[in-house]
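Input record (Table S2, row 593):
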Amino acid sequence: MTETEAELKKVRGIPVSPGIIIGKAHLVDRSKVQIRYQYLLNGRQLEEEVARFKEALRMTEDQLVHVKDRLPDQVKEYSYILDSHLMILRDSMLTDSTIKKVLDEHINAEWALRRSLADIRGIFNQIEDEYISSRVTDVENVTEMILRNLSGEQREKIFELRERVIIVAHDLTPADTAELNIGKVMGFITDAGGKTSHTGIMAQALEIPAVVGLESATSMVKDGDLLIVDGNTGDVILNPDDSAIIQYQEKQLQHEEFKSSVARTAHLPAVTLDGHRITVRANMEFLEEVAAVRDYGAEGVGLYRTEYLYLTSKGLPREEELVEEYREVVELIAPNPVVIRTVDLGSDKLAPGLDGAKEMNPAMGLRAIRFCLREPEIFRIQLRAILRTSAYGKVQLMFPMISGLQEILDAKAILCQAKAELDREKIDYDRSLKTGIMIEIPSAVMMSEVLAHHVDFFSIGTNDLIQYALAIDRVNEHVAFMYQPFHPAILRMIHHVVRAAKSAGIGVSLCGEMAGDPLCVTILLGLGIEELSMNPRSIPFIKKIIRSITMEEARVDFDDVIHLSTAKEVRAYIVDRMRSLVPELEEKGYLRM
Ligand code: PEP
Ligand code: MG
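Output record (magnesium ion complex):
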């Protein structure tokens, strides 16, 4: 660190939307609503209190509908976020339970609402899927809106700004973000927020840089302070000196050039400099993501997660409902393929209405294919829906969490039954539908030579594979430091699976987060992976990296790396190689050790 840098007030948060901005801070009052009063009510006040709460719900609903109706074009595809907030607002878990608490315990609505939120937080904390458990932020956002309406506090309107500023707030809800006047707001930083917050998704769609989770931004920054916000790295510099400004202006320029070159080339194929074509597909979960899948140059969907309808439907979704949803995705992605994964439900990810015993180790519990084989009726209906969808486009079917051959045989038996039913009912489906499995359990890795003869393709799920191979709970922050894609054991496992697939002549892809990590690209290519599936926004950059390297170099790197013994050594090797192969990675902060 140079002396000048040492004097700078620099803090690091979580980057959620890329880009660099230099501008004046504008503090907005988005602090948490303080509940000043927790009070008991007497019997005569109860009705009035419930009416006050209902009025706050009505106001919140009006506000959400107002924002949704006026969404700027760039974020229209994210209207589902506001729909989900409206759903939360109407959900009995939040509202009815609050009213019940008011009536049963004679407490004021604010107090009861906070208690309902705490109950919901408790439930979300037990959900092992990181994405779904982090959705509790949405419930918190809605609760804040209701509390504000209960308190009668007026919110400063962020969109009535006179000059271009950087917003500094305790937190911004997705609705706040959607309302930002991007003509006036250069970007924002917040105390609260996490990596997968919907606020970040909105900021990305609006293409304004944002850093969240700074913890003390609102107490450190004063209105009018000069700020530099680096949405690539999460760095925020308060009152920078001239040299920092010059340095970041340069970075800003580079970033803009980089962005336009990446965007221009999103739809180009991913071909290495020595002519090897890599297929790059997208992971998706919600229908609304289809636009991003197409815009970011995905060549189809490599992983369509299907838990959502089971988690949100009242009871189980009907076959027709499933077909309707899947069909829309498949038709919009055609002529490219969609790999539909059967539900990874179970244990704490139970659909409402299904009973399940509490499990000590849900990640190792009755989930995914185990759950489906235990509940063949639920499974059969989903299989029928997927088969029926295959008549409308290019569909492939995939089973998650396979641990050995027996599960494949059992799952295929139910698939055969579903096909026979459709034959009898004269309902059309793709008779050559490809069926594959996720390889995400170490036993499946070890058995991959055998499994390869029973399926049409493998898709390596490194999120779970790393969890099970290194024995680290993927949602436990205390062992997050051990989530190591570069662990030699993981690389060897991937290598083993690729060899098994190739010698059996079946396809093999990789769809864990690792696929979209710019640092992992060469090593995955070197390992022999020719198909990657990732979050849509990562696609243009990953494709660009593929176009900047040769397969020959990737193989040489792999030969070197496979002899290294620790994740640290592998990472150091890769960082060094990538620094020379793709210089942009350095400036985007990916090469920090
Ligand atoms: C994985 O485990 O790598 C994967 C892609 O599946 P999920 O993240 O849905 O468990
Ligand atoms: Mg998985």
